[in-house]
Design a protein that fits this description.
The complex is a heterotrimer. Chain A is of the alpha/beta class. Chain A is about 45% helix and about 20% strand. Chain A is globular and about 60 Å long. By secondary structure, chain B is an all-alpha fold. Chain B is built from 22 helices and no strands. By secondary structure, chain C is mainly α. Chains in contact: A-B, A-C, B-C. Chains B and C meet through helix 2, helix 3, helix 4, helix 7 and helix 10 of B and helix 1, helix 2, helix 3 and helix 4 of C. The complex binds sodium ion (NA) (2 copies).
Chain lengths: ~325, ~425, ~170
């Protein structure tokens, strides 16, 4: 029997931990017990070291955020641009299809066996001060952001941005050091900021979607018996992307209900606001296209359009 | 389970053979993980641990709080605290010892380390007590024990480290330490009264100060108050985070010492380098403890221990009580930071699974560290005093401290029984 | 030799620590008064932390400030104690040398990935190389200690500055 060591850097009850465990159990069942997972009580390393931990074989199975190792991944930034999609399931499947279609994506993930790439749900602007209804409202307000494209988007929008770890959100917001943060709906519950935030501004398609990769150690994968390998292959790609994306949609909905119960005021960005964000962030796409082409993705503009078309097709 | 126990045993053995503790933990952790997971992954993991711990933003509070304490010591604030306390309470039996406890509490409010508090106070309070004919066992005992207030009264470096490894709110931990800290001070003063009641020669009364003298002495401690208000007020008032508060506190202490002319360039560099060296020493322990707990993570110990405790049928509070007993016993022979870092990955999940507040458990952890620091035979505060005071033997220090160990245990039991003592104040935070 | 090491590493670590303090102060003041925080203050703090820790590490070893159980020392004849110390220092040198090599490899790996910091986009490789070099230097210090042993120094017991630890 093969044992896969599973390491997860989010809490045991988080959808990404339970999602991975669910994936493992399904795998064990399909392979009739020839393989199983051993979920470690604690992650083998902090989030940014996870890609290397899987590549080096310290853990066999884990996931990470591409943006946590700045400079390493250019291609996945594509899925983090504004207004990509309201459903993590849809954007995850579309992202996975792009990954399979354009080899430049896999090129950046050399050294690990990628099981799936996926995204979280639509990114929302949360704050403790006032309803944000137009683009000018955010100028001068202090926001905490994590890494990745969200950093560029918020800067382009004129926010006063500070990069701080997500677990510090509660402290930063409750003490008034920061005025707000950018998160998907799920994280409000996860980082316990529901009692602190007063206002939320949602965007059609989300302000951003963070990209993730779910991966296995390459040597471990290579050592699997052919029949088990085949099952792993079947459960990779779109299957896993859909499963993890769907899991995220579920907790996003729960987070929304949670916030409504906590009395958070919601604002839906109107057409003028969306237009203003589009203008302000238009330069980011050009920058990405250049960077992606320099790193070997041919006709990056077309790939981006392809991704958007795929999402539109899936949403139907 | 066996693998984990062998690992712990190997660390102890190497430490007894005089291998620096950090190297013992790191080495055992590395070899054990290598045997379990293969050498390639283990080597990569070791490098990753060093990298993660080095580039850790939240850990920057550690050197900054150390630096703040060192600037404050240089500025001579400890003398003024001691003088003020003495002006009010010096005339009672054991008055200097009582004043030492109060000054330790005040100094603790601007210094995050027990060892630094004890070391500073030994220079401030010991000579006065010697001059008045205090017994060495009382004066050293009270300095060693009073020094531990440095980590219960915020800011506290050990609380920061606990907060970081368990992802507990550091601001709440700080608030939670205030009442137990003041309570501990009261317990220590009760201990002084007991000793001087049994042995009046141990701590004769001093002269009574006049009220004008008292007011004058009180005016001398405004610097301490300003620093406390700036750091704690800034953290709770939303001007900066607890992480940033350490930097602001260090900067405040720096300007204060500078204004007093206590920081010529040479001394400044010396303070900075000493603080950096202490930091490096602590981080070697941190890194090594992480390597060791990476190995423990792969063993069955955390799960086995959890099962064992749940099958014991103890009440939840008894489970925590049993943990405290283990800690107090371990603390007599272990260095406390590594003790906490090694056991937290095993104990903490059990405590949270039982539904206890991590903030409360954090305060209990600080208590066991306090106790370990002054419980013979291996207690850092005792060693520090022994090294700093040439004419006092370790035997004398051991003799004086046991009553204060009991006092700390008493204070800890109260907080164990009534969690509100710790949790009431942080309850006011949003 | 010892003095040169003290001066160089001390200056490096001391200046870096002062810089973290100043950076925090300026960052907070800027955010409060000018409504603008310093770009990349977090990653600068992290890099400076690495300099503080690893530049001071050779000095910790040089002055015998690692936590050691020396309670049994008086039970041993001096020659045995001397031998034991030499063996321990050799082991420490080997461990640190190995670590230096691992960090050097990691630096190369990160450089090949093009890893940078998030906001200032500084390449990470050189800083990890610096960690490796300073670990290597500490290994050399332990080799030096085999020839010229130092007595153990309980930290916080310096004559002038009570540099207390976390506890
Ligand atoms: Na303190
Ligand atoms: Na101890």
């Amino acid at each position: 029997q093969t044992v896969l060591t599973l390491s997860s850097w989010v809490p045991p009850a988080h959808t990404l931990t339970t999602g991975q465990i669910e994936w493992c159990e399904m795998l064990a069942q399909k392979a009739a017990g020839k393989i199983k997972c051993n979920a470690l009580p604690r992650a083998v390393t902090a989030a940014p070291g996870t890609f290397d931990a899987v590549r080096n074989g310290l853990a066999d199975l884990s996931f990470t955020v591409h943006g946590y190792t700045p400079g390493r991944f250019v291609m996945p930034q594509m899925v983090e641009f504004p207004f990509m999609g309201d459903s993590a399931e849809v954007t995850s499947v579309a992202f996975q299809r792009m990954y399979a279609k354009y080899p430049a994506f896999a090129e950046e993930h050399k050294g690990v066996k990628v099981l799936a790439v996926f995204t979280h749900g639509p990114g929302i602007i949360f704050n403790t001060k006032k309803p944000i209804t137009k683009a000018d409202d955010v100028t001068g307000m202090k926001f905490r952001v994590g890494g990745g494209m969200v950093n560029e988007i918020s800067k382009a929008m004129g926010m006063n941005v500070t990069l701080k770890p997500a677990p510090e959100s509660y402290e930063l917001l409750s003490t008034g050091v920061m005025d707000g943060t950018l998160f998907p709906a799920e994280s409000v519950e996860g980082f316990k900021i529901d009692k602190v935030i007063k206002h939320a501004t949602t965007f059609p398609g989300g302000l951003y979607n963070t990209s993730f990769v779910f991966m296995m150690n390459q040597a471990k994968y290579d050592s699997l018996p052919p029949d088990v390998k085949k099952i792993v292959d079947e459960m990779s790609g779109e299957f896993a992307a859909r499963m993890l994306g769907r899991g995220w949609d579920k907790v996003d909905r729960r987070g929304m209900a949670f916030m409504q119960a906590a009395g958070v005021q919601f604002t839906k960005a109107d057409a003028a606001f969306v237009g203003a964000v589009k203008t302000k962030t238009a330069g980011l796409e050009d920058t990405w296209i250049k960077a992606a082409e320099a790193k070997g993705l041919k006709n990056a503009k077309q790939v981006l359009a392809d991704y958007r078309a795929e999402i539109a097709k899936l949403q139907k | 389970m066996t693998a984990a126990l062998l690992g712990f045993g190997a660390v102890f053995l190497l430490a007894l053979l005089r291998v620096p503790l950090a190297f013992a933990m790191g080495f055992v952790g590395f070899v054990a993980l290598g045997l379990m997971r293969g050498w390639g992954p283990t080597a990569a993991s070791a490098a990753q641990v060093v990298y993660d711990t080095g580039f850790a933003y939240t850990l920057s509070v550690v050197p900054l709080f150390i630096l703040m304490g060192n600037f404050v010591a240089k500025a001579g604030l400890a003398h003024e605290l001691f003088r003020a306390a003495y002006a009010f309470i010096g005339h009672v039996r054991g008055g200097l010892a009582h004043a030492t406890v109060l000054a330790c509490a005040g100094f603790g409010a601007i210094c995050g380390s027990s060892i630094a508090t004890a070391a500073t106070m030994s220079k401030v309070a010991y000579p006065s007590m010697k001059k008045l004919g205090y017994s060495d066992y009382l004066s050293t005992g009270v300095i060693a024990a009073g020094g531990t207030l440095g980590i219960m009264i915020p800011p506290s470096t050990i609380m920061v480290i606990y907060g970081i490894v368990t992802e507990t709110n550091i601001g709440k931990l700080f608030a939670a330490g205030v009442i137990p800290g003041l309570m501990t001070a009261a317990f220590l003063m009760a201990g002084v009264s007991w000793i001087t009641w049994r042995d009046p020669q141990a701590g004769p009364a001093g002269e009574r100060s006049t009220w004008p003298q008292r007011w004058a002495a009180l005016r001398g401690i405004w610097g301490v108050l300003v620093l406390v208000i700036v750091v704690l007020g800034g953290i709770y008032g939303g001007v900066f985070t607890a992480t940033e508060g350490a930097g602001i506190g260090a900067a405040g202490a720096f300007f204060f010492a500078l204004a007093r002319g206590a920081l010529p360039p040479k001394v400044l560099l010396q303070v900075l380098v000493e603080s950096a060296r202490t930091t490096a020493m602590l981080f070697t322990i941190l890194i090594a403890a992480m390597m060791f707990s990476n190995f423990i993570n792969f063993t069955s110990m955390p799960g086995d221990l959890r099962d064992w405790i749940t099958h014991m049928g103890l009440s939840p509070v008894m489970v925590v009580g049993a943990m405290m007993l283990i800690y107090v016993l371990l603390g007599t022979i272990m260095e406390e930071l590594s003790m906490v870092l090694l056991t937290i990955p095993v104990f903490f999940p059990i405590v949270t699974a039982l539904g206890f507040d991590p903030v409360w458990f954090g305060v209990l952890i600080v208590f066991v560290v306090q106790i370990g620091l002054i419980s013979p035979p291996v207690g850092m505060n005792l060693f520090v005093l022994n090294a700093l005071l040439d004419d006092v033997s370790l035997k004398q220090i051991f003799r004086g401290v046991w009553l204060f160990v009991l006092m700390l245990i008493g204070a800890m039991l109260l907080v164990l029984e009534w969690p509100q003592l710790a949790l009431w104040l942080p309850g006011f935070m949003k | 030799m010892k003095r040169l090491l003290d001066a160089l590493c001390g200056l490096l670590a001391g200046v870096a620590l002062f810089a973290i303090m100043a950076l925090t102060l300026v960052d907070v003041l800027g955010r409060k008064l000018l409504n603008h925080s310093i770009t990349g203050s977090l990653e600068l703090t992290e890099i400076l932390m690495v300099v503080v820790i690893f530049a001071a590490l050779p000095l910790v070893s040089l002055h015998g400030e690692h936590v050691v159980f020396d309670s049994l020392d008086h039970l041993m004849p001096p020659w045995l104690h001397r031998l034991q110390q030499a063996v321990v220092d050799l082991g420490c040198a080997a461990a640190l040398g190995g670590l230096a090599w691992l960090m050097w490899e990691k630096a190369a790996q990160m450089a090949s990935y093009g890893d940078t910091t998030a906001q200032l986009q500084l390449p990470m490789g050189p800083f990890v190389q610096l960690m490796a070099v300073l670990c290597g230097l500490t290994a050399l210090v332990h080799l030096l200690l085999m020839l010229q042993p130092t007595s153990h120094h309980h930290i916080g017991v310096d004559d002038d500055v009570p540099a207390g630890g976390a506890t």
